[in-house]
Every structure is written in structure tokens, then in C-alpha cells.
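Subject: Predicted fold for AAA family ATPase, 450 residues

User T.R. writes:
Posting the sequence so we have a shared reference for the thread.
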Amino acid sequence: MNPIERSSQADFVGDLLKKCRSGHGGAVLVTGAEGQGKTEFLNHVAAFGEEYGALTLAASCSRLERGIPLGALGQLLSWTRLPADLRDDATALIRAGRDAAQCPPVGSLEPVDVPPELLEGFQRILARLTEHTPVIVKVDDVHDIDRVSLQFLVYAMRRLHSVPLLMLLAERENAPPAPSIWSAEPLRQGHLHRLRLTPLSRAGVEQLLLRADPRLDPGLSADIHRVSGGNPLLVHALIADQHAAPGRVDGAVTVGPHYQEAVTTLLHRVEPALTRTVQGLALLPSLASATLLDRLLEVPAGTSAQALTTLHEVGLVHAGEFRHPQIRAALLADLAGQGFPPKTRTAHPGWDGAEAGLGSAPYDGGPGQDGSPGRAGAVDTACGVGALSDAERRVAELAARGHTNREISRKLFITVSTVEQHLTRAYRKLGVTDRRGLPDDLEGDELMAL
Ligand SMILES: Nc1ncnc2c1ncn2[C@@H]1O[C@H](COP(=O)(O)OP(=O)(O)O)[C@@H](O)[C@H]1O
Ligand SMILES: [Mg+2]
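User M.O. replies:
I've generated the C-alpha cells; pasting them so everyone works from the same file.
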């Protein structure tokens, strides 16, 4: 299905695809905050290209693999339909590249020394693939690319004028403190077109709401737009919350566990260097005092402002306030397991109350974008064993059986912090304050095997 409010950007890419068919390549850098639909857009336009006969080499970069030389290039060349002789060339290329080049420290913009014959080797593979059909090279989350692969991409990018190849790259906006990988040459040479994905409008949110379920009240779209800031990830979560809470007060938007989970997802995608500061913001009585946090956390001046901007861009902060009380609650839940300095914990007089009230904060209309006061109490939150997600139930069951958080984390292959988040939500839904209050009858089949 077509992504909503992205048709002008899709048309732009469509035009580049047409040029590809006449032998001229191009490159597009799709930017936007987390959850704004970069992956969705890339997949959509690549699928469109494939319908018209292009073939796609794809890679998805990850923070954990930034230091693995040629990790991204290896993904691109692992295309299963690569002809056998090219597969051998690709394997040899990756092996030689890993022997020849190392990744510099994360954040360094020093160019990596890659032997020219290896760069040419990649060009030869691309040239063979483009002999009969245009090729799309799709790299998602390119801000996390290993620097050796980047060198290959940039080399290929400089030769696009004569190759029917379309590079589709997605980069998280505001990825700093790491400097943008494109601050060097390619942009200046005009090879790279930037497409910025902005939040959905109120009308776009309504369209998404009706597409998801025509029975939902379109009148909810104003509140959903306000709570989500138009971030499609948050909009989808809020729609799921409406489904999970039938019989709510008429006209009231339910802000529940799906939304809270989406907030946590967004938080975990923030650059690690900002995570602690983002969580620290939740401890402040008011975001207006954000700049105090730099000194309190002993982070470089400006880090808190950066964290605030990031939260603003993903749609969690508006007009200097969190868009919904559950955002603060989700950040605090995340923080609860991370050994924050005690002096910071006590900086927020509402710490205990905020923690105890996780997930139960009603939506009062939030900070009205028009400056109007929020609307009072229109939320319900699912509770009881039936309201537990599978993950929460699994964690709660092990906790009820006396396992420590660390043991649970090892058994379920999740971090201790995630265990704590699941437990916090499970306590809230079950109306208990600690593991001693958990019921015995949560058991699931798969737990028996653990
Ligand atoms: N324009 C859109 N219309 C409808 N749904 C969208 C749109 N953009 C994104 N989505 C949905 O929102 C969620 C987040 O999108 P995603 O592409 O993962 O964001 P990003 O890659 O920018 O973090 C996904 O479930 C996606 O399907
Ligand atoms: Mg993505």
C-alpha cells in the first residue's frame, strides 16, 4: 500500500528510475527522524522499481556493526540471484577488502584507505549487473554504515552519470553527535539528492486511521495527531491502542501500552551518546530547565539541547513539553534499571510518583499546539493478566518463580533493562507493586522448556 503523504517524493524517485532506464544513474538520500517512515519509503520505491524490471541489492546497517569492515557491502553482494561467477568475485572482493582496510573509530571522518583495484572490482560487478537491467542499491540506516563500505559507495556514486544504477539511502536525521558521513565530498558534487520525510499532517493521520480501520471514529485523528506529532510509528501505535480498548469513553483517545512501547522503541534508537541525557530530561520538573542537565550529568555543553531537539523531531516534545505524560513515564521506566547517578535521581521531586504512575497518565489534550489548555481525563488503560503482552507474561512468570532479573535476561536473551521495563508494565497491569505480588497462574507452554 502506498505510504501516506509521500507521493511527491515517490514521483521524484520515479523520475530518477526513468533516467536510469536511459543509462544515467542517480542517488537519493532519504532523511527523517526515527519512525518517520524512511524504511517504508525505501521499500516502497524499490518495489516500484522492481515492478519495472530493476533488480535490488539491499543492505540494512546497524549500530552494532559499524566497526565490521565491509559489513554493508557484504550484505549488498549476498544477493541470492547473483550469477555464480560474480558470486565468486564478490566473495574474493569482500575477503580482500577485510584484509586490506580497517574501520576507523566511530565518528572519525578520516577517509579510509582502500586499494583502488578493490574499488574497481566493485564497479566491475555493478557494471555486469547493469548490463541488461537497471540496478537499485538500497542501503537503510546508512548513518550506521561501516566506513570501509562507505568508501565503496562513494566511489560508485561518483561514477553514476554513466551507469544505470539508482542508489537509495536512508539516514536518520540529526544523527549527531557523530558528524554526518556526507559532510565530505559527494554532496558537494551534486550526486546526491536529499529527500526529507516530514511528519504526517492532521489529514494524513486521519487517512491512516481510516485505512487501518474504517470503523474508527475519524474525530480521534486530531488527538492522535497531537499526541504523535504526526510520527507514523506513534500513529500506528495509537491506532493499535484504540483497537485494544474497545468500549472507551466516546471520542476519547486511548493512550496505552502500544504507545508506551513505541516511545521506548524510539528511545532505544537514539544515539547512545544522547540516551542518558534524554532519560535525564524526564527527571526534570520542567523541560525549560534542560540546560542544567549538561552540568548535572557532566556531559559536553549543548548535549541537553541536542537531546531536546531529537525528542522534538521524533514527535515526543512540543512547545517545550512532553506531548503526553506517558512519555516521561516510559523514559523513567527505562532509566529505572540503568544505574543513574543518585544525585540525578533525587533532582526530580516527582521521581517516586512518576514511577508508580507508569502508564496510567490520562491524556488531557497535552500542551495544546494552539496554546489552549489540555482536555481533562479521557483515557483508559488495559489491565489484568489478559492485558499482558507475550513478552511481559514470559518475564513476569519467571519473576514469579523467583528468578532474578539477570537470570531472566539470560534465559530470554534480552537485556536486564528490558526485563525491568517488562516487569514494570506487568506490575502496573496486574495492579501489584513488586514480584511478590505476582500471581502464580501466568504460565505459558514455552516456559516449561526453559
Ligand atoms: N507514510 C506512511 N504512511 C503509512 N504508514 C507509514 C508511513 N511511513 C511509515 N509508516 C509506518 O510507520 C512505521 C515506522 O516507519 P519506518 O519506515 O520503520 O520508520 P523509520 O525507518 O523512519 O524509522 C512502520 O510501521 C511503517 O509501516
Ligand atoms: Mg528505518
